[in-house]
Specification:
This protein is mainly alpha-helical and 229 residues long. It has helices spanning 2-8, 12-25, 30-42, 46-53, 66-84, 88-98, 118-130, 134-146, 169-179, 183-196, 200-210, 224-228; strands spanning 148-149, 159-160. 38% of the residues are buried.
């Protein structure tokens, strides 16, 4: 609780110090392993966060997906750094690793059609554009805008997927729709995303980002997807 309090107050270094200290005392505690990874991500130690998460077989718990969420965030933050340096092929490799569901995390892999991978696809889209891979970029944008399944093969035979919840995927969907030439639908999706969001700070941040007036993500918003986006 103390570590989480430091995180919410924007003091990631103190949060990590506490998590690591007690993680060493109780190395098999799944909760502390997840906490160490969370604080390491907050301090920018993404590779170390992955190592900690994969160092033990975490106990499975019904409804607990945090371990995989942290795993995904730790891997997705690395390609973000690579993309800034225009190392797009390296970034694509890291994005593919982020899509995996290691059994040791204690989280069962959902049915493929239920996996919300819109953020992963959005990052891949940016990499394709950076590499001038127009065909792949056009395909990725269409999949995102129309939320098609399956994502490969003949898109004409694909059916749209529907995602529940107010994840950052809704914001990604709005961006994709606007770039696909469907600005009215994009505005509707964004409005729905903000309306369903129980966090006013998160919704306000998302709207500003969409309107081209981004601000830093509030420290109170601990959503992994938003951190990456």
């Amino acid at each position: 609780m103390i570590s989480q309090l430091y995180l919410s107050n924007g003091d990631a270094a103190k949060a990590e110090a506490i998590a690591v200290k007690y993680g060493r005392e109780f190395p098999d505690n799944s909760g502390l392993i997840r906490l160490q990874a969370q604080t390491m991500i907050a301090t920018g130690r993404y590779e170390d966060a992955v190592k900690v998460l994969l160092s033990k077989n975490l106990l499975p718990a019904e409804g607990v997906k945090k371990a995989h969420t942290l795993y995904s965030e730790a891997y997705l933050m690395q390609p973000v750094q690579s993309m800034k340096a225009k190392r797009y092929r390296q970034a694509l490799k890291m994005i593919e690793l982020a899509r995996k569901w290691p059994e040791s995390l204690g989280v069962g892999k959902p049915y493929p059609k239920d996996i919300d991978d819109r953020l992963d696809n959005w990052l891949s889209l940016q990499c394709y554009r950076g590499l001038d891979m127009k065909k792949e970029a056009d395909h990725a944008l269409k999949v995102l805008a129309l939320q098609l399944w399956p994502e490969s093969g003949n898109l004409a035979d694909s059916k749209p997927r529907s995602f529940e919840g107010n994840t950052v995927g809704g914001l990604v969907h709005a961006f994709a729709l606007r770039e696909y030439g469907q600005s009215i639908r994009a505005a509707t999706v964004l409005h729905t995303w903000a309306k369903e969001d129980t966090s006013a700070a998160m919704a306000e941040w998302g709207i500003r980002v969409f309107n081209g007036k981004p601000v830093a993500l509030p420290a109170t918003v601990q959503d992994a997807g938003c951190q990456v986006f």
